[in-house]
Amino acid sequence: MLEQQQAGESLRFNDIGKVFPGVRALSEISFVARPHQVHALMGENGAGKSTLLKILGGSYQPNSGNLQIGDRTMHFKSAADSIAGGVAVIHQELQLVPEMTVAENLLLGHMPSRFGVVNRRAMLRRARELLTGLADEIDPSTRLGDLSLGQRQLVEIAKAMSHNAHVIAFDEPTSSLSAREIERLMAIIAKLRDEGRVILYVSHRMEEIFRICDAVTVFKDGRFVRTFEHMSDLSHDQLVTCM
Ligand SMILES: Nc1ncnc2c1ncn2[C@@H]1O[C@H](COP(=O)(O)OP(=O)(O)O)[C@@H](O)[C@H]1O
Ligand SMILES: [Mg+2]
């Protein structure tokens, strides 16, 4: 279950700016993503979507601005900070270790152990729980590097969801998934939304955006263009024009 404390809280970006040497990746990005909604981020390549999610995930620090969850202002200095703040980001580039098993990847950092000895059976059981509904067919004792790219992406998603985060951000999660895997992911995202979480969803695929998203924010060249609060009032052409 979701932490009582965070239920109902929005995620707010306030004037976020990010500069890389020679590139202004984000300028004064402000918008709100609400609980019980899937909020799409759209914009051409290089618009700054992944940079914003890396700031949310604590991998990058902004040069200006901040983000808020509910009424708390967050300054994430690391990925661990972001996780502790109730955030899970599934990055575009996979973060897993191919030489380790699926279970080890899923539970890295919090393996069930007794007197310093990892409880292998408990670990496999917990890993199987985390994969339920998303990738039941993956055997947690498989070496990660032996899975297909789509399956690895599902493991990454299962890992991010294991922290029971209030805010969950997906960066192009379907890029290497099969049609059947996409269906399962869509069902899980709908469930997370119905539980009252804040979901951010980055994709180029219009049909996914219109199917799963409730609101959409458009970026262009690192700048905020517009938020449409109701996908249902928006046409495909309007969205394309805006981008
Ligand atoms: N680590 C980095 N170092 C330098 N420039 C970067 C870095 N990450 C992103 N950029 C630049 O920032 C801009 C936004 O990139 P990105 O956030 O990846 O866009 P998107 O995800 O919307 O395609 C681009 O111009 C990109 O080249
Ligand atoms: Mg990107």
Helices, strands, pairings?
Elements: E1 11-20, E2 23-33, E3 37-42, H1 49-56, E4 64-69, E5 72-74, H2 79-84, E6 87-90, H3 102-107, E7 113-114, E8 117-118, H4 120-131, H5 149-161, E9 167-171, H6 179-194, E10 198-202, H7 206-212, E11 215-220, E12 223-228, H8 236-242
Parallel strand pairs: 3-10, 3-11, 6-9, 9-10
Antiparallel strand pairs: 1-2, 1-4, 4-5, 7-8, 11-12
Bound molecules: adenosine-5'-diphosphate and magnesium ion (MG).
Magnesium ion binds next to helix 1.
Provide structural commentary:
The protein is an alpha/beta fold. The chain has two domains: 1-86 and 166-178 and 193-243, Rossmann fold (3-Layer(aba) Sandwich); 98-164, no CATH class. Helix content is 31%, strand content 27%. The chain contains eight helices and twelve strands. It has helices spanning 49-56, 79-84, 102-107, 120-131, 149-161, 179-194, 206-212, 236-242; strands at 11-20, 23-33, 37-42, 64-69, 72-74, 87-90, 113-114, 117-118, 167-171, 198-202, 215-220, 223-228. Strands 6-9-10-3-11-12 form a six-stranded mixed β-sheet, sandwiched between helices. Strand 1 and strand 2 form a beta hairpin. The longest helix has 16 residues, at 179-194. It is globular and about 55 Å long. The structure holds adenosine-5'-diphosphate and magnesium ion. Residues 49-50, 92 line the site of magnesium ion (MG).
